[in-house]
Structure formats: C-alpha cells, structure tokens
C-alpha cells in the first residue's frame, strides 16, 4: 500500500488546561499570536497559550449568559481586539495590549472583573479591557465575524437577523445594516477573504450572500440545496491548493483559470450530514456600449453547488474549516474529526480510493452522497465521460464534476479521521491554527494544527502528521 | 418593526418567549363567537364569563417581546378585512338622519360605521391600478359608502356613513408638533430634567407605531424624548368618537371606526389602552361596567382593502371614479368644513417631495422655524444613506446654526439614533471610561423625524407589493421603481385636479382665516381654531384630546430574571435548543 504512507495522520498534541467547567462552544485562534480564545457556557472567554497549552487569562463579568462565539479582529499590531457574542443577545468588544512575554507566562489567576467597580482606573496594561457593548439583537447571538480589512463586524442571531456594524471611531460603532431575509435562526456568518461579501447560514436551510449596493446592504444570492439547518459556512483562502500532480496540464490550467475567475469558494456543512462546496458562476462580461449609461445587470450573483465532500459523519455536522493549505476539516454531533484533501484527479484513482475505503472500515455502508452534482445551467460540452472515479469511490471520493473549463479536474478524498475525539461528547467547533516549529537546521516552519472544542468543555489541539 | 409584523410571515416558526405569561396550549382554536373579536379580551372578562380558555390578546402580547410572531397571529385575527365584514353584519347601521332633535339615544341597538383613510394608502392603490390619487379617493369612498360598494351586500346592507381623510388631522398634528418644538426650545435645558411639560430634546416623532413599540420594549431611555402628540390616526379616532358620541348622544361603543393605513403596526397602535375612551370620557362613574372603547376599533391596510372588496365580490378597479352622489352632512358644520373640505381637493394638501413620505412632520417644523427667523436659510445634508438627512437652519445674524433637526428612517438608522441618545452612565463593564464621554454627543438636534420603514410610510408593510401587481413581464418593476411610483402618486396628490377652478377660492370658502399666516400651505390659526372648537364643543380639555403617553414594556429576553426563567433557559440549552 504505497499511498498509505503518504496519508497524514491525526494525533493529539495537547489538551488545554485547565478546561472549562461546562460546555465550550468555539475556539478562535489568534490571527498572528499563539493564542486561542475559547467561548464557554460559563459566561466567560478563556484565553489559552498555543505554546504552553495553558490558560493565560479569562474574560468574565461582561456577558450574562453563555458566550457562544468570538472573533479576533484582523490587521492589528500591538493590541488585540476580540468580539464576543452571547446568548444574552449582546456583542462585546474587548481589548488587550499585546505583551512580549506571552509565551512562557505561567498560569495566571483569571482576571477578576467583578472587582471592577472599586478600582475602575487601575488596570494592568496587559489585562483585558472592555471597550463597548453592541446592543440590538433581540435574541441569542450565534456568530460574529470581522471583515478582512477589520472595519466591519457582522453578527447574527436567533432573532433571524444579520447585522453589520462599522467602526466609525475609537470604540464607536454604527449599525449600517439589519438584514432580515432569513426565515430562521441565523447560525453563522463569514466574510469573503477579499471582497466585502458576507455569507450567512441559517436554520431555514439556506445560505445567503450579502453585499452593499450604493448605500444599502442587500441579499445578492441565495444558495439553496441543503435539506436541513446549515450550521457553518467558511471561505476558501485566496489561493487554492490542490494536492498531487495533475495528469494533464491543460486541465489544470483550465481549472486554475476558472478558479481565478470565480474567486474563493464557499464551504458549508449541515444537519443533513452533507458538506458542500459552492462556486460563483462568474458573470459574462458584456461589452458595454459607450453610449449606454445604464448599469448592466443587477448585483445578483449566481452561485452553484460545485461538489459535495465524501459523507463520513453520521450525526449533524456543526463545524467545518478550510485551511490556508487547502485542506478541510469537519466535526459535529458524532464526535468525529475528518480531514479532506482536494486532489488533481487521475483517471485511475481506483487504487487509492479503495485503499481509503479499507482503512475506514468503521464507516463502510455510509450512503454514497459524494455523487457529483451538475448544474443544469452549466454548459456541458467539456464533460468528457470520465466518471468512473465517482463510481468506484465507495463513498470516499467526490468529483469536482461540473464542466465549465475543468471537468472532473479535482476530487476530494478523506485523508484522516478520528472518532470520539472528545469521548462521548459532541464536538461543537473545529478550527485550523498554525504554529512555528523548528526544523533540523533551526529554521522555523509553519505547521497546521487542528483545534476542537467540545461539550465536555475541553479544547484539544491535534497535529496532522504528514 | 413593520417588516417583521407582516401577515406574510404568518407561517414563521413561532417561538413564544421562554417566559411568556400566556401558555400557548390554552389558545383557543377559534375565537368564541359570543365575544366581539375586535374587542380586546381582558383577563377580567374571561374570568367573569368562565367560558372559553384564555385568549392571548394583542395588548397582552405587547408586554412580551419574546413572541412577536404569535402576537401578530392574534393581531391579524383581531383586526382584518374579515373583521370589518363581521362588524358590518353584526348590527343595524345607525341612521343619523333619524334623529329626534340631535338625539340618537333611541337607536341604542344600532351602530354607526365610520372609516378614515390615510393618503399613503391612496397612493398605493393609485399606483396599483394606474389611476390618479383623487380618483382612488373616490373609489375608496364608493367601496366603503357607495351603493355599488359594501352596501350592495351583507346581512344588513351596511356601509360606512362617513369616510374621513386622515390628512385633516395630520394638519392638526403638524401645527401642534411645531408648537411642541417651539415650547421645548423655550425651556432652558430639558436635557437634565424630565418634567411633564414638554419632552426632552431632541423631540422624536411618535407617529410611527413600529418605532413606538420598539422604543417601549427595547429602548425605554428614549421615551422622555417622544413627542406627546397622538398620531393622525389616533387624533382622527378621538375626534370622531368624542364629537359623534356627544353630538348624537350615543355611546362610544356604538361607533365603529375602521382606519385604513399603510402599516400593520397601526393595528398595534389602535390596541393601546392609552387610546381608548377611558382617557377622555368625563365621568367614568357613568359607565362603570363598560369596557374601554378604542378610538380606532380596527385597522386594515391597503392590501386588505383589496381583500375586503374581493371577499364581497366587488371589483375595486371597476368602482366608479366619481365622488359619492350624496354625502350625509357631518353633524358639526365647523368640523365638517375641516374634515370634508370642498371640493375634494383640500385647501393645501399638496405634498412637497421635501416633506417626505411620512406626513411631513419635520418639514412643517422646519418651515415654521424658517418663518420665525426671517432671512434664515435651510441646508440639508444627506447622511450615510438616503434615509438619514440632517437639516440645519442658519441665520446671517448668528454664527452658529439656530436650529438643527434630522430624519432617521429605517431600523438600522434607528439603531444609531438610540445609541447616541443613551444616557452617559458608568458602564456595568470595566474600561468604559474611554468611550463613555462620547455617547450622547452629537445630538444637538431639536427634532428628529423617526420612521421604522426605510423610505418612510409609502413603503409601509401593509402597502401593496410589487409582486402583488399583475404586470406584463416587460414592464416588471424592481422594488425601488415600484416605490418611486407610489411616491409619485403620493406627491401628486390633488395636482391632477387642474380643471378644479374652485381651488383658488377654496381657502376663503372653507373658512375666514387669513391666508397670510400660511406655513407650508397650512394656516395654524385656522387649525388651532378648529381644535379649540373641538375642545369646547365636547367639553374636554384639549390636552386630553391630542396628547398621549408611553410606558416601558418589560421584556424577558436576554435578562436573567427569576430562577424559574433561568432554569428554563438552561434546560433549553441542554437539549440543544441553545444551538
């Protein structure tokens, strides 16, 4: 089994200590520092070190109910800003000056913000400072997300709405949009890595895309297909990364060209046990008459379901994440962690996939939902009848099927899996983090880590050994 | 908000507030017949009759923000086009001609049906059927009171005796609103105190019921800022019920008043206890057993007008486009001239686009201020979107602006308004000292016109939607284009009556007021004269008639109250409900 050795292995690197006494919802890795922020139902956010794997500080005293979500503001230097969303319907913004001695700091007693009234002016420079509370949602806040530039904050709630806030001054935020088209609890919001385009996922089974048109934010696309709650949406990195070697260079070129035209893809996971990848169908550039003063077309975007990942999970999939290196990891109610890779497709992928199927015998018999899904609207002339991979994949392979300029150019394969990652507990969230590890010659090398957060209040860090 | 409180959402997942005081399972499948469904059923009544299970009334639901959707289900059942038909079929129509010396007490078993119509509804219907705004007014009159309208069917062949344009009382509201602002400017600094005399600056308009409902539930700190004036709908309701009950010597509950509005939330307004006869009837001891009677019994929207006609098999577009042949005289000649100006086109009711689509409260206040300060100029600055506009009046004699006001439409902009009005207080959270100083700043406005709907009242939730209009594909309109068409109809009011030669003389016909004191086409002295006449003829203090009050409505959401609530919440979280 030659290819077996090339498969990554998932191994537990560390369990963060001490863990939360009650259910933990989500862990957000800091964009630049080796820090992790874990949201807990004990109304606190716990800041852990990704180097010592211990608790550094705790944000308490702000929220009156479970902290459901948090997000680090990007593009900051010298200071870290964290947005927190809670079941108490409020969003908090917190600040802390970055200190140099982050790494080996010993365990610190949780910051006691309850004593704040007495000594409101006596803050340590390296403690968390509350900046502002953003009120407006009428019910539990489920997800918060900063735009790539960091100037916009999106929040969503059980009240079925998505709000967009703009920072207009120091700790001063304005509501610039309240989007109410969803017909159910909005579970997740995520910003496009480059454009000011927001994706939201909902209990109404839909994914919606939002964009500003002149001065009004509006829905520019509805991605329908999931048969149940969409728990999570995530964007692909700006640069795609496909594993393996392409068989034909022209196929690869075509694929890359199309990917360039459509931009980063969108990833979604659902209660319907499916994980789907969505791609923008770029609008054809209609040459405009120089005389025409009418803007061509609407802001509506056409998105299609490009493919589904192999079905592995047997319970609702709560969380997915797409790494910068192109891998996808998923987790959910069944407690499994599954890692997927997108590979250049070979006409004879049979060997590999059979092997993969054998290795994952625990999940045999799972219905093959990895069938490629073609969009009727797509021109099919490029499809060249290379469909056998999907047939013999035993549920393990999903083929990027739709035509355009890259028929069946890639497929997704399961490369690693762990069951019962948090024992009998559900895993609520999975995220990619990275750390620098010294190689033999003393050079620091970036290593992808997987961080899972569970109902047991535990946060685990996993290595993907390649 | 209007977008939420729309009948379209009725199939929503209904999630009652965790701590809803009225368990859903006790909801009756159908409203019991012996209770007039348009009445607010109170707890007392239910206990007394010991009959059907508890009913969630709209008033009950307003106390709990946790279940807007279940509230709206009740709302729609209590105030709908079907309810209008039920009311018409419930009793014989009161005959104002059959009076014994202006005494209608011998007709105690009959009901007087009256209707009032807002200009935005006419604009919506006009745009839908491609007719002019004044023709639409005639068609509505024909539907509600004409022989080919509702009178052509039903158990008793009842129709509406009088159909009033709410524009009349809107003018009263404008004049009073301008005075309220002038008065608040005379008070040295109302920022600190909250005396009952006048609202805190900036005064916020209170005509939009969605905004009021939201402020009461979510932002009680803005309540002292709200204009105390009743909305045109409420003013029209109070006027009709007070005047007609006194003049005809009948009980207020013998008068059944339907209001036709662009907005679902107006149903919420109509159900406010503050807008019932207990706030103005002189001797409550006279009628000890009588339930509060609403000034407006039922509100239906433009869309429901069409349903009303359809249900009776009447084709609205085919109704005659002429005024009713005969119109019974309103029992008070002075008010008659005010409510039914001749010709149909009133003295001055041309809407200027600058006045906006929501009645022009801010516009009238600005015009009043301009008239008070000769040589002053008005500058408007657009905010970050079309629904935020700031107005500044400057005078060559003053270095700083002499008057500042703004318009905030739409939910998202309201968010920023209420945040700026938040009192500066030590935050419950640490570190707020840096930002605390900034809150409350930048609110040097004297007045802000606030409306919940983006685009204002012509875009109300009850208006006919572009999708409802059967148009050929090639003429399909976007929502924006559709709104522009309604706005056009709204602003074109009366402009189409070019052949109306009486128009120039209408002023003097109506009243002997001096045209010289016109502001924004309205004569304040004439309007004030009418209001005084109203107060004098009914023997009720004017303040009681034209003002109302607001109260904080406790919400259970997001608050850790008693242990019971918390436990329920925790439980919901444990079984995954928290997801």
Q: Can you tell me about this structure?
A:
The complex is a heterodimer of chains A (466) and B (579). Chain A is mainly beta and 466 residues long. Chain A has helices at 249-262, 350-359, 388-392; strands at 9-15, 24-29, 35-40, 45-49, 55-59, 67-72, 79-86, 91-97, 129-134, 141-146, 152-157, 162-169, 172-179, 186-191, 197-202, 207-213, 216-223, 230-235, 266-270, 275-280, 303-308, 317-322, 328-332, 337-344, 397-399, 410-418, 427-438, 444-454, 459-465. In chain A, the strands form seven sheets. In chain A, strands 22-23-24-26-25 form a five-stranded antiparallel beta sheet. In chain A, strands 1-29-28-27 form a four-stranded antiparallel beta sheet, with no helix packed on it. The longest helix of chain A is centred in the middle third of the chain and has 14 residues, at 249-262. The model of chain B is unreliable at 1-37, 39-69, 190-194, 344-348, 425-441, 495-513 and 556-579 (pLDDT under 50). Chain B has 579 residues and is of the alpha/beta class. In chain B, 35% of the residues lie in helices and 8% in strands. Chain B contains 20 helices and nine strands.
Compact overview of the structure:
Chain A has about 475 residues and is mainly beta.
């Amino acid at each position: 089994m030659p290819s077996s050795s090339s498969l990554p292995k998932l191994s537990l690197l560390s369990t963060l200590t001490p863990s939360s006494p009650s259910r933990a919802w989500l862990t957000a890795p800091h964009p630049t520092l080796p820090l992790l922020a874990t949201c807990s139902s004990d109304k606190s956010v716990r800041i852990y070190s990704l180097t010592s794997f211990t608790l550094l500080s705790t944000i308490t005293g702000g929220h009156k109910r479970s902290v459901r979500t948090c997000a680090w503001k990007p593009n900051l230097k010298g200071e870290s800003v964290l947005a927190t969303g809670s079941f108490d319907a409020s969003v908090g913004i917190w600040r802390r000056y970055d200190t140099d001695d982050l790494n080996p700091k010993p365990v610190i007693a949780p910051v006691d913000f309850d004593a704040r009234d007495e000594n409101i002016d006596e803050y340590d420079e390296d403690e968390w400072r509350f900046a502002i509370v953003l009120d407006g949602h009428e019910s539990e806040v489920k997800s918060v997300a900063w735009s790539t530039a960091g100037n916009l904050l999106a929040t969503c709630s059980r009240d079925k709405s998505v709000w967009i806030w703009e920072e207009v001054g120091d700790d001063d935020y304005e509501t610039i949009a309240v989007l109410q088209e969803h017909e159910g609890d909005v579970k997740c919001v995520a910003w496009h890595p480059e454009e000011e385009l927001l994706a939201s996922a909902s209990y109404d089974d839909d994914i919606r895309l939002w964009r500003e048109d002149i001065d009004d934010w509006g829905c520019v696309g509805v991605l329908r297909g999931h048969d149940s709650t969409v728990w999570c949406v995530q964007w692909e990195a700006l640069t795609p990364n496909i594993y393996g070697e392409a068989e034909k260079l022209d196929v690869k070129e075509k694929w890359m060209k199309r990917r360039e035209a459509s931009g980063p893809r969108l990833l979604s996971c659902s209660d319907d046990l499916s994980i789907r990848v969505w791609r923008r169908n770029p609008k054809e550039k209609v040459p405009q008459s120089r005389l025409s003063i009418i803007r061509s077309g609407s802001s509506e975007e056409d998105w299609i379901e490009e493919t589904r990942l192999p079905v592995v999970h047997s319970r609702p999939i709560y969380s997915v994440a797409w790494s910068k290196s192109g891998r996808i990891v998923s987790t959910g109610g069944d407690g499994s962690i599954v890692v997927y890779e997108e590979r250049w497709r070979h006409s004879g992928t049979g060997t590999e996939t059979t092997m993969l199927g054998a290795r994952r015998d625990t999940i045999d018999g799972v219905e093959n939902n990895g069938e490629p899904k073609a969009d009727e609207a797509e021109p099919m002339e490029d499809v060249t009848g290379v469909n056998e991979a999907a047939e013999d994949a035993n549920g393990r392979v999903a083929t990027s099927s739709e035509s355009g300029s890259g028929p069946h150019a890639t497929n997704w394969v399961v490369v690693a899996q762990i069951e019962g990652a948090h024992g009998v507990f559900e895993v609520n969230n999975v995220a990619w983090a990275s750390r620098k590890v010294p190689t033999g010659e003393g050079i620091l090398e970036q290593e992808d880590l997987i961080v899972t957060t569970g109902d047991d209040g535990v946060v685990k860090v996993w290595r993907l050994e390649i | 908000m209007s977008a939420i409180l729309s009948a379209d959402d009725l199939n929503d997942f209904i999630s009652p507030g965790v701590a809803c005081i009225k368990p859903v399972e006790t909801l009756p499948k159908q409203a019991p017949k012996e209770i007039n469904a348009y009445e607010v059923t109170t707890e007392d009544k239910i206990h007394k009759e010991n009959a059907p299970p508890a009913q969630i009334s709209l008033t009950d639901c307003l106390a709990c923000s946790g279940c807007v959707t279940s509230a709206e289900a009740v709302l729609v059942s209590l105030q709908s086009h079907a309810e209008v038909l039920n009311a018409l079929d419930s009793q014989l129509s009161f005959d104002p001609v059959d009076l014994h010396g202006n005494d209608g007490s011998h007709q105690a078993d009959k009901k007087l049906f009256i209707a009032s119509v807002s200009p935005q509804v006419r604009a919506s219907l006009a745009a839908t059927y491609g007719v002019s705004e004044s023709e639409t007014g005639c068609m509505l009159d024909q539907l509600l009171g004409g022989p080919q309208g509702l009178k052509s069917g039903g158990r008793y062949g009842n129709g509406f005796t009088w159909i009033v344009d709410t524009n009349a009382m809107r003018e009263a509201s404008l004049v009073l609103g301008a005075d309220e602002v002038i008065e608040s400017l005379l008070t040295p600094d109302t920022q600190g105190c909250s005396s009952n005399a006048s609202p805190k600056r900036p005064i916020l308009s209170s005509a939009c019921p969605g905004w009021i409902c939201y402020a009461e539930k979510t932002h009680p700190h803005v309540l002292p800022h709200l204009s105390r004036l009743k909305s045109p709908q409420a003013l029209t309701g109070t006027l009709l019920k007070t005047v007609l009950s006194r003049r005809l010597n009948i009980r207020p509950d013998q008068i059944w008043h339907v209001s036709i509005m662009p907005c679902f939330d107006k149903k919420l307004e109509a159900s406010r206890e503050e807008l019932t006869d207990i706030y103005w009837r002189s001797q409550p001891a006279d009628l000890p057993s009588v339930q509060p009677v609403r000034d407006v019994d039922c509100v239906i929207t433009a869309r429901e007008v069409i349903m009303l006609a359809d249900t009776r098999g009447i084709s609205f577009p085919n109704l005659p486009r002429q005024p009713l042949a005969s119109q019974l005289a309103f029992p008070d000649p002075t008010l008659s001239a005010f409510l039914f100006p001749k010709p149909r086109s009133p003295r001055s009711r041309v809407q200027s686009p600058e006045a906006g689509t929501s009645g022009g409260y801010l516009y009238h206040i600005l015009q009043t201020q301009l008239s008070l300060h000769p040589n002053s100029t008005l500058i408007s600055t657009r905010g970050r979107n079309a629904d935020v506009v700031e107005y500044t009046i400057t005078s060559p004699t003053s270095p700083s602006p002499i008057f500042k006001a703004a318009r905030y439409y739409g939910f998202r902009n309201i968010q920023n308004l209420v945040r700026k009005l938040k009192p500066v207080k030590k935050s419950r959270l640490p570190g707020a000292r840096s930002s605390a100083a900034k809150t409350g700043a930048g609110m040097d406005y004297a007045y802000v016109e606030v409306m919940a709907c983006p685009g204002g009242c012509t875009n109300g939730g009850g208006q006919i939607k572009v999708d409802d209009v059967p148009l050929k594909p090639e003429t399909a309109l976007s929502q924006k284009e559709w709104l522009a068409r309604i706005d056009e109809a709204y602003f074109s009011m009366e402009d189409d009556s070019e052949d109306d030669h009486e128009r120039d003389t209408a002023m003097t016909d109506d009243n002997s007021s001096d045209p010289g004191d016109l502001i924004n086409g309205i004569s304040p002295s004439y309007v004030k004269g009418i209001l005084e006449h109203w107060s004098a003829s009914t023997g009720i203090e004017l303040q009681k008639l034209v003002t109302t009050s607001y109260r904080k409505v406790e919400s259970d959401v997001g608050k850790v109250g008693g242990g019971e609530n918390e436990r329920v919440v925790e439980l919901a979280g444990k079984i995954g409900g928290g997801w």
